[in-house]
Write a structure and sequence with these properties.
The chain is of the alpha/beta class. The chain contains ten helices and 13 strands. Helix 1 links the parallel strand 1 and strand 2 (about 30-35). Helix 4 packs parallel to helix 5 (about 145-165), helix 6 (about 190-200) runs parallel beside helix 8 and helix 6 crosses helix 10 (about 300-315). Bound molecules: nicotinamide-adenine-dinucleotide and uridine-5'-diphosphate.
Length: about 325
């Protein structure tokens, strides 16, 4: 395709990250073709975009082939929260494997760049800390998280084989825990869970002792990283970690959210889910050197934005 606005496909564009990415791409003057089957996506995430003539929506399951024209493809379609991806694990694996094959086939026919939203879960329960991209991971191939972890690992394999075999221009982002407005209210992810519990004065559910760690990145920072990766120099494929190295225990997260929400909720303990990684923090030197990217949003400021979002949602009823 030629000059003028670029047409950008976002699979999973009605999801949490995809809808923020759509906002950013439209804001720079390009067109967005959002491809989503609404498995975990929400119409409210993209409701504000329907009047925009540069925005188009196709309800489509990426496990089936797609025939459209575009200039580049961001491939995000895949449920990301453990309770969602474990609800129909076979479909999760199909989405990663068949979905990637279909989108890679589309990119090959069009001769365009394609970016894969991979994950820190490819490192499993890591024995190397923080995690550099060179670490191959410690993943259980037959556990309850495997449909997601192994699916994403297989998708990375497919991306690199299409690159080696067909010369396709690929970009692989390994995304670490991200939070912000438009997270799904029922996805059980820790930031949204704790905020909803805190705002409603319910007990905050710490799984295990709460001494496992995660490192949380605000969604706007992640989106900036995805855009920088897509526009990175020809031949740079990644994989590249995108996340915020600001690591904390889940207990500390709970205490910070209670304070930020002005809540009187108490901490209660629940069993630790199977294969729950004990620690996670990205080494982002590659992203800094190659993309000139690093997250800038202050964690507490991002939390306030997210609390305000859920507060408004609860007020709607
Ligand atoms: P999300 O669940 O909000 O969004 C995923 C979107 O993909 C949804 O809109 C869903 O309806 C759509 N989808 C799922 N299966 C599909 C299918 N078969 N066909 C078409 N659409 C389908 O999740 P998210 O947090 O926005 O994550 C987006 C991507 O980023 C995912 O690929 C996820 O694995 C990756 N990622 C996210 C995080 C994070 O912390 N949010 C971390 C690591 C990786
Ligand atoms: N977690 C928790 N309470 C909750 C939800 C999650 O203690 O209500 C923990 C969970 O066990 C994990 C961490 O928070 O150790 C992050 O969980 P999430 O599902 O958000 O993401 P992931 O495990 O995929 O990083």
């Amino acid at each position: 395709m030629t000059a003028g606005p670029r047409r950008v496909i976002i699979t999973g564009g009605a999801g949490f990250v995809g809808s923020h990415l759509a906002d950013a791409i439209l804001a720079r003057g390009d067109e967005v073709l959002c491809v989503d089957n609404f498995y975990t996506g929400q119409k409210r995430n993209i409701a504000h975009l329907h009047a925009n003539p540069y925005f188009e929506l196709i309800r489509h399951d990426v496990t089936f082939p797609l025939y459209v024209e575009a200039d580049e493809i961001y491939h995000l379609a895949c449920p990301a929260a453990p309770i969602h991806y474990q609800r129909d694990p076979v479909q999760t694996l199909k989405t990663s494997v068949h979905g990637s094959i279909n989108m890679l086939g589309l990119a090959k026919r069009l001769g365009v760049r394609i970016l894969q939203a991979s994950t820190s879960e490819v490192y499993g329960d890591p024995e190397v800390h923080p995690q550099p991209e060179s670490y191959w991971g410690n993943v259980n191939p037959i556990g309850v998280r495997s449909c997601y972890d192994e699916g994403k690992r297989a998708a990375e394999t497919l991306f690199f084989d299409y690159h080696r075999q067909h010369g396709l221009e690929i970009k692989v982002a390994r995304i670490f825990n991200t939070f912000g407005p438009r997270m799904h209210v029922n996805d059980g992810r820790v930031v949204s869970n704790f905020i909803l519990q805190a705002l409603q004065g319910e007990d905050i559910t710490l799984y295990g002792e709460g001494d496992q760690t995660r490192s949380f990145c605000y969604v706007d920072d992640l989106v900036a990283g995805l855009l920088a990766l897509m526009d990175s120099r020809q031949g740079f494929c990644g994989p590249v970690n995108l996340g915020n190295p600001h690591e904390m225990t889940i207990r500390a997260l709970a205490e910070t959210i209670i304070e930020a929400a002005g809540s009187r909720s108490r901490l209660v303990h629940k069993p630790l889910p199977a294969d729950d990684p004990q620690q996670r923090r990205p080494d982002i030197s590659l992203a800094e050197n190659e993309l000139g990217w690093r997250p800038g949003m202050d964690f507490k400021a991002g939390l306030q934005e997210t609390i305000a979002y859920f507060d408004a949602l609860l007020a709607e009823g």
